[in-house]
Amino acid sequence: LSGMRTPAAMIVGLVLCPCGLLLTLTGTLAPSWRQVSRIPNQPSDLIYEQGIWDMCREQQSSHDRLCGQPDELGYFKQVPVRVAQGLMPTSLVVTLLGLLVATLGVRCWRTEPLHLLAGISGLVLLLSGLLSLVPASWYTNELWALPAPADSTLAVGYSLVLSYLGSCLEILGGLALTFSFHHCCKER
């Protein structure tokens, strides 16, 4: 097809990065980076979900869920949580910036995409993926060290998993877009 001039790597980047953005956004906002269960002297079906902004308690049997729980153990003061509060929103802003640059560079309605601009967007999106991967990794590493009621059971929450997946998709999409630099080098 002579009309198809958008390289596959650019299409891959423009598909993966918005998906990564949605997952990272959900991971940032949803309060479930860690689940605390089997808390002594509490109902056996009580689960605390801790995010980077909020803490919720849920009774599994009745599905009664109450967010905005008090932080009695200083969870939100912990460095991995503070770092996540700073880097996750930063990552989202950098992703939006990268997607804007990518849209201008790829421009499917042009006869030829702007390869240099697409390559630069790839670097920006790669950076945004790393900005969200760092806090997700650090939090995971410290998950069992963060304050929790004694003898309770700790588990990874879905928000942390989504943050990881979002970071990886942004990194892969960013890498795909950086292949546009190859075209720039060929032209020189």
From TrEMBL:
InterPro entries: Claudin, PMP22/EMP/MP20/Claudin
GO MF annotation, one: structural molecule activity
Residues of the signal peptide: 1-30
Transmembrane segments: 83-104, 116-138, 158-181
Gene Ontology CC terms, in alphabetical order: bicellular tight junction; plasma membrane
Membrane topology label: Multi-pass membrane protein
The keyword Transmembrane belongs to this UniProt entry's keyword annotation: yes
Locations listed in the record: Cell junction, Tight junction; Cell membrane
Keyword Transmembrane among record annotations: yes
Alphabetized UniProt keyword annotations: Cell junction, Cell membrane, Membrane, Signal, Tight junction, Transmembrane, Transmembrane helix
Superkingdom per UniProt: Eukaryota
Family (UniProt): Belongs to the claudin family.
Protein name: CLD23 protein
